[in-house]
Structure formats: C-alpha cells, structure tokens
Amino acid sequence: MAIKTDRTDDYIITNLKLAPFGANMAFRKSTFQKVGLFNTDRGRKGMTLSSGEDDDLFERILATGLKAVFLGQSRVHHKVERFRLSKSYFRKWRFQSSSNMAKSNGIPEGRRIFNIPLYLFPQLLRSVLKTIWGYVAKPADEAFYREMIVFHFLGLIHGLYRF
Fold first, then answer.
1. What global pTM score does this model have?
2. Half-sphere exposure in the Cβ direction for 51 (13 Å, CA)
C-alpha cells in the first residue's frame, strides 16, 4: 500500500471506505472486462498530483457485485523520492486530489454560491480553527493531519468553483 495501515488481517472489501489505494493491487483480467479500465482522467498528469482512479475502479467493482479482498500481510517496498516526503508535496497532493474529486464527482446537495455548497464554508472555517489549535496544543503530526483537512476543503471548493 502507498500508506501505512494498522490492519494486518485479511478482509473482504464491502464498501469504498475499506478499499486500499496505491501501489499494491492485482486484478483478474475478467474484472476489467466487466467494469472497465482505470479512468485515467482522474489520475496524475504531468505536474498535477490528483488521484482517484483507484477509488473509481473499486466503486465500479463493488457496484457490480464483484468480490474484492484486502490481504493484510502483503507488502511492497519501493523507493520514494525525497521531494515526495515534504509537507509542501502533501499539501499540493491533498489540494489537487480533492479538487479533482469535486470535478469528477461533484457534491450533490445544498444551497450554493459559485457552485459551492454553503455548508462547506463553515466546515472550512472549523478545520482552520482546529488546525491553529493543533499547532498550539497538539503533537506536530496531529496538527499536520488537521492541516491536510484544510487543504481537502480548499481543494473541494476550488474544484467545484472551477467546474
């Protein structure tokens, strides 16, 4: 997986929240014949770090009733370039991924201004305040996690506005 996971057990993926993402996947050819290929419009292109092609594929797999399994003992070791370990890289990745998610999926409900549901603005404000508090009173990793939520909302708003 492209991220650390605390789960090491094997389990059937029953919803999108349980689906993995990243570098360690294998599929039968028949899966692609039934649900189609990865949607490359949702993936990385050039300097744009957006993602979501794996979520899209798992969503189609689950919608057709196919079985997907997470194997918790599987591991892949690969080199990661130094620049991909910086906070600025993670900020850019989160922003662009969330922007792409908003453009691809939209957000279906709510009163809007410039195509942005009004309820996103107070959520963004709360996440900014939690981030500030995090940098004052929480461990650095938790504070940065909270900052990623801010970049998620900023990306959503950007993607909806640009859509």
1. 0.71
2. 14
